[in-house]
Amino acid sequence: MFPLYTEYSFIYQFYGFCFGGIIGGGDVYYICRAIILIMEQVERLDTVKQYNDYVGVDTLHPLVSVVKFNEIPTIQHFRRYMGIYAVFLKNVKCGDMQYGCQPYDYEDGTLVFVAPGQVYGIDSKGVAIKPSGYALIFHPDLIKGTVLAKTIKEYTFFSYEVNEALHLSKKERKTIVDCLEKIAGEIEQNIDKHSKTLIVSNIELFLNYCMRFYDRQFITRSNINKDILVRFEHLLDDYFKTGNTLALGLPTVTWCAEALHLSPNYFGDLIKKETGSTALDYIQSRLVDEAKTKIFDRSKTINDIAAELGFKYQQHFTRLFKQKVGMTPNEYRNLN
Fold first, then answer.
1. Angle 272-158-156 from CA coordinates, rounded to 5°
2. CB atoms within 10 A of CB 325
3. φ and ψ at 82, to 5 degrees?
4. E strands within the chain?
5. In the chain, what are the domains?
6. Per-residue pLDDT tens for 85-141?
7. What is the pLDDT of residues 194-213, one digit of tens each?
């Protein structure tokens, strides 16, 4: 456990979990990744074989692997920079995660997603642990030239934080395990001209089920999500009232997500599910609402109002206002 400080005084404390934690989210992610690599001299896992060698299983396919942790005796402390995709299904309770200062305890049947470029690890406190569950590991080269290569970015949960993991029902867990077993079965076959197509299509099916189950999780956690939406509203209110626009400029999706202790992708997906608008559209609509109030103060020029709202250039403000309202700020002022 160690704190990371950025020039914006954000503090992140990273703890491990059985199979790994995700670091994600805008500029802070890149800052944290660089600091971790320097402070811990984190080693890299760039191939499927490297991961298989670490956990002690045979490599049956150079670009993809399904690891059954029940067949592995123990795993010790592990923290690596990942150059491959990984999805971990956890069965056993491996301790409490923390994000910032907030504890988050995982229940059985949890999926965590790791994308290339992320650092992940465990905190076994120096003790070898007996893991349980599955891991799906695949190299980006596996999906090159396939439809999945074009759509992989749409599975935004690969950029979620560990405290935004997917928690499965028993029925959902069975579906996930069935998918993993099908992928494992295909890997165990002799490689032929059909192998890549069948493996990738099964991975895509697996990810589509994960997307469906995440949608369900957003629905079943609607009360929590509405609380986040209220906090988002208050955050924007405070941002405009305290004059942060003058010091920090326009509020961004990344800034709002970090202030709410969420990853930008999870935050964006949550806002979209709850409001039907993207987080950026939501912020822009609030900016226009603030602008409408200020426009009635005729002692201020349109340029003054644009600057107060955090715009560097008045023409950018005018363009956004006209896009949202259908007329320029001056036209709106004269009309009212």
1. 25
2. 14
3. -100, 130
4. 3-5, 11-13, 43-45, 64-68, 79-82, 85-90, 96-99, 102-105, 110-114, 119-121, 133-138, 166-167
5. 3-217 (2.60.120.280), 223-335 (1.10.10.60)
6. 999 998 745 444 433 333 333 355 889 899 998 877 665 666 777 778 999 999 999
7. 999 999 999 999 999 999 99
